[in-house]
Known about the structure:
binds zinc ion; 12 helices; 14 strands; alpha+beta; Nucleotidyltransferase, domain 5; 43% helix; 5-stranded mixed β-sheet; 21% strand; 3 domains
Amino acid sequence: MEEKVKKNKFTKVIRLEVDKPIGEDWPAFNKKMFELQKVYSDMLNDYCLNFFAEIKKRIDEVNEQGITLNKKSVKMTDIINFCNSEIATNYKDRYTSYAYSQAYRLMQLKMENEWQDIFIKKTKRFPFYRKDGPIHIKHERNIYGCGIEENNDDEKVKRLIWLSIFNNSSKTIVLLRNNSFKDYNLPIWERLLKGEYKYGMVSLIYKKSKRKWFVNISYTFDSIANEKLDPGIRVGVDLGVVFPVCMAVNSNHDRLFVKDDDIGLLRFRRQIEKRRKNLRRMERKIFDNRSGKGRKHKLSPLELLEDKYENFRRTANHRMSKWVINFAKRNNAGVIVLEALRENDKKQKYLKFNWIYHELQTMIKNKAEEAGIKVETVNPAYTSLCCSECGHIDKLNRPARDKFHCIKCGYQEHADYNAARNLANPEIETIIQKSSKKNKEDDNSLFA
Length: 448
Ligand SMILES: [Zn+2]
């Protein structure tokens, strides 16, 4: 078999919270940024409309002539020049600054790349920019744009992002919130600082619900070409009934259970649910008579709780996905097999960790991609009832939630491990097809 070392480029994003602006106060910063957001959306929407009017004319002309539609035949360069000059004229008294030239250049790129999808194939929607949408600033190696910095002399003003986007040439500097750096994004930040990862677009986002500014930094890197990874070695990741995650590998008996105690998922969940209930009741009492207008600037206790909940879940998922990848790496597995999650899945309904799985799977996929490991999904129906030793499927194989005991061959194992072992088996779908045909059991009775 021919083996190729392929280098793949990946683009990913880390999100960090803005702690405060440096050298100006919040009202000044907000005023400046909200205004920029507005100009930004006006300008981009205008650009789209101009482009739309022009391209429509050209497409009609080309169609009439019966020639092939492409960049050349629609005279793309002319369209772009027209749109750019329109924007330059209409917005010259607003921000004749970097922010503005950035905005339309981004739009120009988008249109050049996606015009066929938007106007002909209609696979992409006509873009629309909200008044409170993100402000994108591209990092370029000159005085304009943006950059990240770390200040080691002062712990209180440590990690910073500067933006140089306005006319007056003074930089806007924001301090990033220390506790938005977690064990999963701190190494990325450090690589960005060292230049090992290249960052491109930095987006400033205002979350109305949280009344906070965030910064998204997108960065690119090559996937690690790991020659030790063997595509024949497969790790099965079972989203367990008893444990959140259980892993098995088809090459040896290595296994890994992520226990709830390791991350405290259930305890946290119970606490949160209880407090959420109480807070809801309280907030209803307090806020019922208020008019809808003029909400308090501060976050409500309920909003703070939701914030905490989201943070906890994300951190837990980052940790678990890291363990999955490490398990695969230590076994040199080239493939990770996940259960195909579906909405309203019967198994999903009774999984007590249901609330974390979608995000967890996404994180596993992302991290696997980065490590050069392939991810496959398998329909999980029957994987919990199928014997990973002989392939016999029977609901009687599961005498208890945590026990697997094959009534045919006598194989005994932890139920989650048996399921993970099934997922790791490259033949599992064939085995299940054959066995379930033999059984002709009803789906419902199997999952009773
Ligand atoms: Zn068996």
